[in-house]
Amino acid sequence: MTDVHDYAAVGVGPANLSLAALGADVENLRSVHFEARASFSWHPGLLLPEATLQVSPFKDLVTLVDPTSRYSFLAFLAGEGRLYRFLTARFPAVLRTEFDQYLQWASRTIPSIEFGTEVRSVRERDGYFVLHSGHGEVTAANVVLGTGQTPLIPDFMRPHLCADVFHAGEFLAHPREVSGRAVAVVGGGQSGAEIVRHLMRLDEPPQSITWITRRPGLLPMDDSPFTNEYFFPGYAREFHGLPQARKQELLGEQKYASDGIDLATLQDVYRERYRHECLLGRKDWLRLMPRSEVTGCARLSDGWELEVKGAQTSIVRSDVVVLATGYEYRLPDCMSELAPRLARTADGLVVGDDYSLSLDGETTGRIFLQNGARHAWGIADANLSLLSWRSAVILNAILGYRRYNT
Ligand SMILES: Cc1cc2nc3c(=O)[nH]c(=O)nc-3n(C[C@H](O)[C@H](O)[C@H](O)COP(=O)(O)OP(=O)(O)OC[C@H]3O[C@@H](n4cnc5c(N)ncnc54)[C@H](O)[C@@H]3O)c2cc1C
């Protein structure tokens, strides 16, 4: 067949954008990258102006496998004429808005990306994969899934979702009326902390904020040097080779290396609380409820009543409820036909040492998975740290030779 792509990628977030950047200069590679959104945007609902990257900007699309690539963060800064000013600004961490600009810049310069194209189905035909979108069909020898993670929302909250009860990922999606109102933030991870900090800094802040978390406290992300080795390719490989039961133990032990709150955000929240309560006299303005789980929600005529189980059961009345309750991986709907043919364990999909899924049948092509294999590859899977390395592993597997040193 002449019009078969070597691979078709579904979703263009940072993961498949990295793949596109690493593949952009590979001769004779025929690839296409489909993105449902009209243009690139990086978690736009949480792109708060003060939010920063939790990792080094060298963990960009390409640098850790190809420091000479024209798609590096440094190349972006140089292209924008910002290098000297960026260095002189000495940000303790790069603003997420700037990293989003970098990702957008890369997405505009890579020709194989088709925006505004949602893949609706992936089927197998004559040993190839056929992808359907509203714009027609494309045939590819391999598929790379990079559709990101899905918001986790407790089942009992689903019927209440509305303009005042929403997942954190939707925070900026609509204008929110929070000033002078009682706001409850559920979830003690990074997103919860960023939203609490943002609410505390508003010119017209909420009347009160209640921050509820199951965690024993507002625990910091472990960003210390030896712990950071969990985010090395060598460790990821070692983890991948362990028995599944051991992986589960380690995921529990290592949780706060990826899911804690970064220290600078915690300090900001602490200082804001001091300013509001001690200097502005707003006593008990930020109420912290650790070791507490929201177990129910009821609608009132003028707000919401959350049932919270901690040492005792209590009721929290609120006008606005922000669910900073995290994300989980789910196969995208477009995979519904092939999903029954994918091998699984009790913990999730079987993901091979080149990130390919195990598909039964005769197909010679493979389906690769980006950012859906924490259970198989460890805590670094959802993080930017292994972004370029994982893309290089996948690209090498598709090409059938070692284009990148992984
Ligand atoms: C707010 C936030 C901040 C983060 N900050 C950091 C950080 O500082 N450092 C770090 O290491 N990690 C961070 N992470 C974790 C991780 O790096 C990001 O979640 C990253 O965006 C994951 O990239 P992705 O490409 O896998 O998924 P996504 O960014 O979610 O992109 C998936 C894309 O697929 C598209 N899509 C889905 N289905 C289809 C379809 N059927 N057809 C076409 N397109 C489709 C979606 O529109 C979306 O654009 C952050 C996560 C969040 C939520």
From TrEMBL:
Keyword Secreted attributed: no
Pathways per UniProt: Siderophore biosynthesis
Keywords: FAD, Flavoprotein, Monooxygenase, NADP, Oxidoreductase
Enzyme's top EC category: oxidoreductase
Pfam families in the record: Lys_Orn_oxgnase
InterPro entries referenced in this protein's UniProt entry, alphabetically: FAD/NAD-bd_sf, Lys/Orn_oxygenase
SUPFAM superfamilies given in the database record: FAD/NAD(P)-binding domain (SSF51905)
GO molecular function, one term: L-lysine 6-monooxygenase (NADPH) activity
Substrates-to-products reaction catalysed: L-lysine + NADPH + O2 = N(6)-hydroxy-L-lysine + NADP(+) + H2O
UniProt keyword annotation of Membrane present: no
EC number: 1.14.13.59
Cofactors named for this entry: FAD
Similarity comment: family membership: Belongs to the lysine N(6)-hydroxylase/L-ornithine N(5)-oxygenase family.
Name of the protein in its database record: L-lysine N6-monooxygenase MbtG
